[in-house]
């Protein structure tokens, strides 16, 4: 076992945040949906958006 694991797994520290525009968030959603459909996690007629 390595020395790092003997001391435990270090916790992540958030050092900032990223702000996206509405258009960027929509593009990220479309790209993510495309990836999920490629791997057959989502069906062709399914979406990741939820209706409120």
Oligomerization category of the chains in this entry: single chain
State the total count of DSSP E strands. Answer: 0
**Structural class determined from secondary elements:** mainly alpha
Characterize the overall form. flat
Order of helices and strands: HH
Q: In angstroms, what separates the terminal alpha carbons? A: 49 Å
| Number of alpha- plus pi-helical segments | 2
Average of per-residue pLDDT values: 87
Features:
52 residues, flat, 0% strand, mainly alpha, single chain, 2 helices
Can you describe this structure?
The chain is mainly alpha-helical. The protein is built from two helices and no strands. It starts with a helix and ends in a 14-residue tail after the last helix. The relative contact order is 0.10. The mean pLDDT is 87.
Question: What is shown here, in short?
Answer:
With 52 residues, the protein is mostly helical. The chain has helices spanning 3-7, 22-38.
Task: Summarize the SSE layout with pairings.
Blueprint: H1 3-7, H2 22-38
């Amino acid at each position: 076992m390595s020395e790092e694991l003997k001391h435990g797994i270090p916790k992540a520290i958030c050092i900032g945040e990223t702000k996206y525009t509405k258009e960027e968030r929509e593009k990220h959603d479309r790209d993510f949906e495309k990836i999920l459909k490629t791997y057959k996690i989502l069906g062709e007629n399914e979406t990741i958006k939820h209706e409120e």
